[in-house]
Every structure is written in structure tokens, then in C-alpha cells.
Amino acid sequence: MERIPYGKYTKEFREEAVRLVVEGGLSTPEAGRRLSLAPSTLSNWVRAYKAGKLSEVGGKHKLLSDKEMEFYAWQKAA
């Protein structure tokens, strides 16, 4: 399973991932598999959502540019 580098998830991605668990009825591990996301990360997001603090998660991490994502994928393939 190919994962995105540490802490590089958009706010929208986190919200949609949480929605799959909270409203979609998926288990955390199943939603994690579908999104190539560690279940523990998703559990943390769900916990933050229930506490009303999901928007604060990942606030200190910068998003990767398209070039950085390409380079990361290229490194993994090599």
C-alpha cells in the first residue's frame, strides 16, 4: 500500500476520510485501506472531529507541491 508522506493531507481529505467513518458506516481499518491511510491516523482524525478540533489537525505541516509528489513517487519506484 502506497502512502502519502507524513502529514501532507489537505483539510478536505481529512474531512472526507472522517465522513466515511462517521456518516458512511465504514470501520476505521476499512476506510484506511480504501484511502491508503494508516488506521491510527484516521482514528486520531475521528477523535479530533468528535472533539470539534479536526480543523486544527495538521495545521503545522506544509502541503507537497505536485513536483514534490512526483519526486516522492519516483523515489519509491526506484
Topology:
Layout: H1 11-22, H2 28-35, H3 39-50, H4 66-77
Helix pairs in contact: 1-3, 2-3
Task: Count the domains.
Answer: 1
**What multimeric state do the chains show?**
single chain
Strand content: under 5%
Overall helicity: 55-70%
Shape: globular
What is the CA-based Rg, rounded?
13 Å
H-E order: HHHH
Number of strands: 0
For the sheet with most strands, the description reads: none
| Number of discrete helical segments | 4
Residue ranges: pLDDT <50 for 5 or more in a row?
Answer: none
What would the average pLDDT be, to the nearest integer?
81
Report the span from N to C terminus: 16 Å
Structural class: mainly alpha
Structural write-up:
The chain is mainly alpha-helical and 78 residues long. It has one domain (11-77). 56% of the residues lie in helices and 0% in strands. It is built from 4 helices and no strands. The protein has helices spanning 11-22, 28-35, 39-50, 66-77. Helix 1 packs across helix 3 (39-50).
Task: Please provide a brief summary of the model.
It contains four helices and no strands. It is mainly α.
List keywords for this structure.
78 residues; mainly alpha; globular
